[in-house]
Amino acid sequence: MKPPKFRYVAPRTLDEAVEHLAADPDAKVLSGGQSLMPLLAMRLAAPSILVDLQHVPGLDGIEDQGSSVLIGAGVTHREIERSDVIAQRLPILSSAVVHIAHPQIRSRGTFGGSTAHADPSGEWPTVLLALGATMHAVGPRGRRTIEADDFFVGPFTSTLDEDEILTHVSVPTTRTAWSFQEAAVKRGDYGLALVAATGIPRDGQLAEARVSVGAAVGSVRRLTDVERLLSRGPVTDALAEEAALTAAASVDPISDIHGNSEYRRKLVASLVRRAVLELKNGA
Ligand code: FAD
User: Fold this and answer.
1) pLDDT tens, 198-227?
2) 56 three-class SS
3) Which PANTHER family does the entry mention (predicted)?
């Protein structure tokens, strides 16, 4: 299939990229192209102009800042997979990244592109929500930050404005108890259900638990009922069982040709149980 006609620019600065976006409401940012180009080819998107970020400096790099790691929007999935900083400071990202497609796609697709795309089946939205990450954006009205809780608001929808560019994501490293769980038909496929859970081990218990679900639901979201359960006391096998039942009761899963709603509900319950048991070991 052929994409519709579009103009193409490759700005050399962030300011120039912002100017192009602000000048045309139908302009779109192009990062790794691993989601946008298929959408164009299938004629599901028809931007007037693509603003390619690949020559814009300052969107790369993975920087350890102590209590957080700052990841550039242009960092590829593959760079995350190979990063020692990520492996040591944010091992949940290392665990999740290998589930994203295949090495060829991971070599082109970017952390920022995936986050901005807000695909409920994407690994990064689920992981970033469970970690409580902060998004950094720039647009014609200046720079701003957006918390993950306020960023992912619907399927393929974030609170990033059409003329804004995601530049970095700041990911806290303080949530040292973590688990990432995915059920997929086979490695590299989009998941049927994703669960990410994190917390801060404190006095033999788990503090500030965050649990998120993706893929099985129309929009990535937190499982706040499960989080409340985890704050009740020490994480035990019985609590993991209760968390699984609570998760099953609190999701309204999607149905498609890959799995119906009831099947995905069972997957979510099973992944939450596994995640909580892993948190127990982490705490
Ligand atoms: P692009 O395709 O360039 O852009 C995607 C969208 O984000 C566009 O709307 C674009 O305008 C916007 N955008 C990009 N960068 C920015 C920015 N900095 N600021 C604002 N807006 C921006 N992903 C998964 O998570 N899991 C999978 O299992 C998976 N499997 C895949 C399998 C196949 C066969 C393919 C082709 C892709 C798959 N992907 C999967 C998608 C892949 O991870 C993409 O890399 C990712 O979704 C988008 O990143 P990108 O850099 O390619 O963004």
Assistant:
1) 999 998 889 999 999 999 999 999 999 999
2) coil
3) XANTHINE DEHYDROGENASE SUBUNIT C-RELATED
CATH classification number, 7-52, choose in 3.90.230.10, 3.30.43.10, 3.30.70.260, 3.40.50.300: 3.30.43.10
In ligand 1, the atom with minimum distance to the C-alpha of 39 is 2
Q: How is the chain split into domains, by residue range? A: 7-52, 62-172, 177-282
37 C-alpha to center of ligand 1: Å? 9
Q: Does the 62-172 domain belong in CATH 3.30.465.10?
A: yes
State the Cα–Cα distance between residues 116 and 159, nearest whole angstrom: 9
| CB-defined site of ligand 1, < 6 Å | 28-36, 38, 53, 73, 100-101, 105, 109-110, 112-114, 116-117, 119, 122-123, 160, 165-166, 190
What pTM does this model have? Answer: 0.97
Q: What is the CATH number of domain 177-282?
A: 3.30.390.50
- DSSP letter for each residue of 187-230: TTSPPSEEEEEEEEEETTEEEEEEEEEESSSSS-EE-HHHHHHH
